Amino acid sequence: DELPPVLGNASELREVITNIIINAIDVMPQGGKITIKTKKDEDQVCILVTDTGPGMPEEVKRKIFDPYFTTKGPRATGLGMSVCHGIITRHEGKIEIHSQEKKGTTVIIKLPIPQAEKEKVEGKKAVIPEEIKKATILVIDDEESVRNVLEDMLTGEGHHVISSSSAEEGIELFKKEKVDLVFTDLGMPEIPGWQLAKLIKEIEPGTPVAMITGWGTQITEEEIKKSSVDFFIGKPFQANELLEIMAKAIKLREKIPSGEG
Asked: Which phi and psi (to 5°) does residue 5 adopt?
């Protein structure tokens, strides 16, 4: 079907679909057919992956998303479908298994269409005062797709965005430009996000730092308290979340004059 776009992390969604296809191949050692379909179902986009394999008994279907559960023996970790379930849940979607023994299996991924979120964003725009809407924002992220999405969203709101694919370059840009807010990634390759946030604060203590991460559930309260990060935003993020953080960050920037901690 002709489909509307959905909000999501491309690499994570690729991982889910790849994992499902590999599982389908594994259960059809003598060959078979895999069919991938997409369709729109009311306010959701659905991806259906169907195989002509042996299907699953009920006891397997009930445990399929349990961590470490596997039917492949000791060579498998049993984490594949559990990870898939976690990724789709973080995307505010659902993953379902339809299967009958000797009749094959269909895995259905359902992802929300963000129309409702667009309406929320319009509501947010109305409550953000004009004087805090315009800002200079530095985006430091090694993933080009994330940088592009952030830049599109923020420039669309009238902000000036500077972006960098590396921590070192980002620090140099920060030293040269008057920046109101920094967005950075937790998993930067050369300098970890925690350390990058600390360096930003050492140069200009009054600059708010927002951390983008797909590891939200793995960050402890102690790490947050010790960090120099002011805001966290999980992947996949949505436009209304960015607007909320922007409003809070600019207010925080105004409270802390330049050069003061």
From this structure: -75, 155
Q: What is the DSSP string of 31-59?
A: ---EEEEEEEETTEEEEEEEE-S----HH
Chain centroid offset of residue 207 CA: 24
DSSP per-residue string spanning 74-139: TT--S-HHHHHHHHHHHTT-EEEEEE-TTS-EEEEEEEE-THHHHHHHHHHHHHS-GGGT--EEEE
Length of the chain: 261
> What pTM does this model have?
0.49
Mark 176-187 as b/e (b = at least 16 C-beta within 10 Å).
eeebbbbbbbbe
In whole angstroms, what is the distance from residue 235 CA to residue 91 CA? 8
Among 56, 81, 54, 85, residue whose Cα is nearest residue 69: 81
CA atoms within 13 A of residue 251's CA, in its CB half-sphere: 10
pLDDT digits (tens, 9 = 90+) for 21-63: 998 998 898 999 999 999 988 889 999 999 999 888 887 777 7
Residues 49, 36 contacting (CB under 8 angstroms): yes
Report DSSP letters for 154-176, one per residue. Answer: HHTTT-EEEEESSHHHHHHHHHH
